[in-house]
UniProtKB/TrEMBL annotation, chain A:
InterPro entries: AAA+_ATPase (IPR003593), HHH_XRCC3_RAD51B (IPR058766), P-loop_NTPase (IPR027417), Rad51_C (IPR013632), RAD51B (IPR030548), RecA_ATP-bd (IPR020588)
Compositional bias of kind Gly residues: 76-85, 320-329
Protein name: Rad51 DNA recombinase 2
Organism: Micromonas pusilla (strain CCMP1545) (Picoplanktonic green alga)
Biological processes annotated in GO: double-strand break repair via homologous recombination
From TrEMBL, chain B:
Gene Ontology CC annotation, any one: Rad51C-XRCC3 complex
Record-linked Gene3D superfamilies: P-loop containing nucleotide triphosphate hydrolases
One GO process term, biological-process aspect: reciprocal meiotic recombination
Signal peptide interval: none
Name of the protein this chain belongs to: DNA repair protein RAD51 homolog 3
Location in the cell: Nucleus
């Protein structure tokens, strides 16, 4: 941690100044940098130029090394491509897993391909590594299925387009199922894990051996509080390196947060969530992991003080255009200090609030058919997965189904996504509009 | 005196207590009867000062430097007349956002020499706007651009090199078409020859900060860095992230935010470069309606930090920028959209004003 860097390890500080700093209880870089040079003059009894020199040398040590965007692109194995060339899923897969395929140097997969062709295409390769992606959806929409599908994709060998890496699955709701994982693997990659029939299927012994390799790569943790997650994440670095982990799943963040903190403790909850996000981001970036977090939805029922209802309440799919349209009416929600996003009557919105929403880099939403009223999300109606926030790509949506092979996206049936149609923005949209800014 | 001029008398009257001196030195001076800067200046030189106040020669020499108000920005250094300012302001080029509606709202684009803040809800396109500006700032002089480099301070990890490449390519394509439209302009065709997406990406310098301390360190290091690299744009995306997690002590947070703002402002005005900061939004209970609404994060006192504040939000399915605060321009709205090539007008792609 740069902030905790001991001043003794800062180059360019002379002994005299260093002893003065220690005498005034300046121990780390943070202590120096959070004060102005004028403060240092007063506290350390030194001249202004000396104080400025101290700040400069400390800053020099702590300052992260700059990198050009080009260098970053090369590292990520990108190189060419981009610029509107539509990559097929297999192309994306090749660029993601092909080490050194880009501009040389150290490279790592820039994406974890989801193997859902249309979604991979929309996300320009898959779930990005090095940042946090989030999946929002009502109960029964297939969030855990999606996570399991991703886990299989990350742990599968490179020969079939996997990342050949480890997976850490933080399961807060005891929903992880090893049987289901194996089933998805068998259906998704029959050439490796298949059970003997069909072309090129491996022998049963081989399949079983590969399956054992796959399942042993997935480590499941079941923390019971948010602070335990934070604690575990802080100590996880070594394990992440040793197991070559490529994917870190937290399923689900909302469950614990909502169970553990009541309405009176929102501030502590948001603070803790922020800290977790910060650690997740650091680990994602330093170890080039894909971090995938699921989130629940919450219902806002107009005047009825949007109570933070359980996941089951997320069925009322708002009609696209109507939600949150009128500025005034959309702001009546007294409860929205909680999960954020003051919203209109009866709309569904992601839980955990705006602060958390800012923390995730990519956000996917699972929902019933757009404008489909009370779509029975759990009962096999049309389901849609939408990309509603991404630094990389435009809004997009696709129909999907949950089958034996996990989540399956039908690439031909793309769904138009506009801001109001996505339940996440619906509630946020228009709040600035017309209000007394 | 270096900085003589009209306000020298005012500086001379300053008490030694308001001058940045080490406390032990100051108390020695005071014991020797020195009260104001003028008293110190009246001595014949550092050696005499040292003798009178019982300082070492080195200390005395530093005191002399301080009371002369060198170039380090203490006290009132660098006051300018309005006519100078007028000349400077009109000489500044804007950085195009590539949405002509938004550019018009901003008086041509994002202005240099000041801090422009973008706030808005998640997914509205704040980062996209920043990446677009990193490309725009590199437009060669021949096309009326800055031909500058960009520094991108990323606290959230949302800078995607692949996305930057896309936008850079679109910008290069656009300039090529402008150049082709006026083939007689040799300056343009010369400039376009070396203007490739690759070169553009080479000129975006990324600092990834994982915590507040790193962010502060970057701010300390930036003044030297921007001079070395012809930087014309500094983006901080986002200011809010670390400040919203790492602080228990709100008073400390306010102090550090103020310090940071002051650094950025100094950076902007001394180097005539544009500083763009990104802020998040937070939900605030509305005392009037009993409901809640979204407001920019980091509080009221921070709201004064930026020169220009732009709020991005959804309005009727369209991304809308609302100019909330500006010292020069009237409030107003502009619609924009995020395309594969970057920020554009809602209908069709118009050329930025040139």
């Amino acid at each position: 941690m740069a902030a905790k860097r001991s001043l003794a390890r800062v180059a360019g500080l002379d002994v005299d100044v260093l002893s003065r700093l220690e005498g005034h209880n300046f121990r780390t870089a943070e202590d120096v940098l959070t004060r102005s040079s004028l403060d240092l003059v007063e506290l350390l009894d030194v001249s202004l130029p000396t104080a400025e020199r101290v700040v400069a040398s400390v800053a020099k040590c702590v300052c992260p090394k700059p990198q050009t965007a080009m260098a970053l692109l090369r590292q990520r194995g990108g190189g060419g491509g981009g610029g509107g060339t539509a990559r097929s899923s297999s192309g994306a897969r090749a660029s993601a897993s092909g080490d050194g395929g880009g501009g040389g140097g150290a490279s790592w997969p820039a994406f974890l391909p989801t193997h859902l062709a249309a979604l991979d295409l929309a996300l320009k390769g898959g779930v990005p590594t090095g940042s946090i992606s989030e999946l929002v959806g009502p109960a029964g929409a297939g969030k855990t299925q999606f996570c399991l599908t991703l886990a299989v994709a990350a742990a599968a060998p490179k020969s079939v387009g996997g990342l050949d890496g480890g997976v850490v699955f933080i399961d807060t709701e005891q929903k992880f199922s090893g049987v289901r994982l194996a089933e998805i693997a068998r259906a998704k990659f029959p050439s490796v894990y298949g059970d003997g029939d069909g072309d090129g299927a491996p022998s049963e012994a081989d399949a079983r051996a590969s399956l054992t390799t796959l399942t042993s790569r997935v480590l499941v943790l079941t923390p019971s509080t948010l602070s335990e997650i934070l604690q575990r994440l802080n100590g996880l670095e070594e394990a992440l390196i040793d197991h070559g982990v490529r994917l870190l799943v937290v399923d689900s963040m909302a469950a614990l947060a909502r169970a553990e903190f009541g309405r009176g403790q929102l501030q502590q909850r948001q603070e803790l969530l922020g800290q977790i996000a910060s650690v997740l981001k650091q680990q994602a970036e330093r170890l080039h992991l894909a971090v995938f977090v699921t989130n629940q939805v919450t219902t806002r029922i107009g005047a009825a003080a949007g109570h933070d209802t359980g996941p089951g309440a997320g069925r009322e799919e708002g009609d696209g255009g109507g939600i949150g349209g009128g500025g005034g009416g959309a702001e009546r929600d007294a409860g929205s200090r909680d999960a954020g996003s003051g919203s209109g009557s009866g709309s569904v919105t992601a839980a955990l609030g705006t602060k958390w929403a800012h923390c995730v880099n990519t956000r996917l939403v699972l929902e019933g058919a757009a404008g489909g009223g009370d779509a029975d999300a759990a009962g096999g109606g049309t389901r849609v997965v939408k990309v509603v926030k991404s630094p990389r790509c435009a809004l997009a949506g696709f129909e999907y189904e949950v089958r034996a092979g996990g989540v399956v996206v039908d690439g031909d049936r793309a769904v138009r996504v506009d801001a109001s149609g996505s339940n996440v923005h619906a509630s946020i949209r228009g709040v600035f509009a017309g209000s007394a800014l | 005196m270096d900085n003589g001029g009209a306000n020298a008398w005012y500086k001379d009257a300053m008490q030694l207590t308001s001058v940045p001196l080490a406390p032990s030195v100051r108390s020695k001076l005071q014991r020797a009867g020195f009260v104001s800067v003028r008293d110190v200046k009246k001595t014949r030189g550092p050696v005499e000062l040292a003798l009178e106040a019982g300082l070492t020669n080195e200390e005395a020499s530093e005191v002399m430097k301080v009371v002369r108000f060198g170039v380090d920005g203490t006290a009132l250094a660098g006051a300018k007349s309005a006519s100078e300012l007028l000349r400077e302001e009109t000489g500044k080029l804007p950085i195009y956002t590539f949405s002509s509606e938004l550019d018009a709202l901003l008086g041509g684009g994002v202005a240099a020499g000041e801090i422009t803040e973008l706030c808005g809800c998640p997914g509205i396109g704040k980062t996209q706007m920043c990446v677009q500006l990193c490309a725009s700032v590199q437009i060669p002089h021949a096309f009326g651009g800055y031909d500058g480099e960009a520094v991108y301070v990323d606290t959230e990890g949302s800078f995607m090199a692949e996305r930057a490449e896309e936008i850079a390519e679109a910008t290069a394509r656009h300039l090529r078409s402008v150049s082709n439209a006026s083939p007689e302009d040799a300056g343009m065709s010369d400039a376009i020859a070396s203007f490739t997406a690759e070169r553009m990406l080479e000129r975006v310098h990324l600092f990834r900060c994982h915590e507040v301390t790193e962010l502060l360190a970057v701010l300390e290091a930036l003044p030297a860095y921007v001079k070395k690299h012809r930087v014309r744009l500094v983006v901080v995306d986002s200011v809010a992230f670390h400040f919203r997690q790492d602080f228990r002590d709100m008073a400390l947070r306010t102090t550090i935010l103020a310090k940071m703002t002051q650094r950025l402002q100094q950076l902007a005005s001394e180097n005539a470069l544009a500083v763009v900061t990104v802020n998040q939004v937070t939900v605030k209970p509305d005392p009037r309606g009993g409901g809640a609404r979204l407001v920019p994060a980091l509080g009221e006192s921070y709201a004064h930090a930026c020169t220009t504040r732009i709020i991005l939000s959804w309005e009727d399915d369209t991304r809308t920028a609302y100019l909330y605060k500006s010292p020069r321009l009237p409030q107003g709205r502009a619609r924009y959209t995020v395309t594969e090539g970057g920020i554009r007008d809602v209908r069709g792609t118009k050329r930025p004003a040139e």
